Amino acid sequence: MPYIYLDNNSTTQVDPRVLEEMIPFFSTLYANPASNHKFGVEVNQVIQKARAKIAGCIHSKENEITFTSGATEAINLAIKGIAEAYSHKGNHIITVSTEHNAVLDTCRYLEKLGFQVTYLPVDTDGLVNLKDIEKSITKETILISVMYVNNETGVIQPIQEISELAHRNNILFMTDATQAMGKIPIHVDELGIDLLVFSGHKLYAPKGIGVLYHRTKRPFNVKLEALIHGGGHENGIRSGTLNVPGIVGIARACELACSEMETNQEKVRLLRDFLETELLQIEETFLNGHKTSRMYNVTNLGFKGVDADALIVGLKNIIISNGSACSSALIESSHVLRAMGLSEEDAYSSIRLSLGKFNTREEITIAIQAIKEQVKHLRKLSF
Ligand SMILES: Cc1ncc(COP(=O)(O)O)c(C=O)c1O
After folding, report:
1. Does pTM top 0.90 for this prediction?
2. Which domains does the chain have, with CATH numbers?
3. pLDDT in tens, 103-162
4. 347 vs 222: CA distance, rounded Å
5. Which of ligand 1's atoms lies nearest the C-alpha of 10?
């Protein structure tokens, strides 16, 4: 039986149209875009076109797009880059306890260097409270970083309100949009985003390529200290020969995601709702995360008395997860679910099902049946 892949928040299949566009840049168009010969100039033009495509998707300027190896690197560059460049202004950063570890660990690292970080709590729905943010602002606050969409629950934070609050206090606002990019429209000016990051492999481009957007016009001309030094690529912000096939791939993926957003959204939302409604009919099953302020491709469900790891193993060819891929090898329960007030036991009983544009109704029907049977089976074993 082939896999039924319901772990699209972890990574996605490369769209064949993305792959097709990338192939020439491995074989015939392999010049270094930093070279000033004709061949290099030709490839550099392709890079600038790719930058323009991405800028078009988020309504930014082309020179505000920096290519990185992924969201983790972009997050490190943004947070450490801001901390260093604005240390003369202050040493305080505000973020949220349900952020991805790429944000949390970067902040913890900065704490070791003497920065102060506030990790705000969330309510039982996973939402951060604006009043809590306001109360935690000090004269030293230089950055507020709140993710757009949570990778485990799909909870969507009110980032426009948060950015307005940040700007009223003359503070930069950053968002980790890794799980939002390509799924919902992003307009950096309308949303008041000063720094934004995402990874290619979450939107049907390959792994190893990511983007950092940083604002260069009103209300802020954001300054960043580089993390990686070398040949001065990407305006000196991120040195290193550009990953040309990756850049071509992520740009094509953004273009496709933006132009096909409505169709994909409609299709995936229907499948997710079908899956969620059916699974919630299982006795003693609960939904983690806000009912409506939630991304349409995810459902995070807990099955009382069921060990999520056993469920994942038991489902064999149906691929699901119990949290973020990078931490699922750890024995600890999800820090996101724990921050939402779940008991250790309920967190261990929870799984994440994240759908993508390639899933079909037939697959979802099979998955529902299999999950229902496994939950029943595991509950029988434990009583
Ligand atoms: C919300 C969020 N931020 C950051 C990352 C890190 O992305 P990458 O591993 O591609 O660097 C992920 C990946 O799981 C994510 O879901």
Report:
1. yes
2. 4-12+261-382 (3.90.1150.10), 16-259 (3.40.640.10)
3. 999 999 999 999 999 999 999 999 999 999 999 999 999 999 999 999 999 999 999 999
4. 39
5. 14
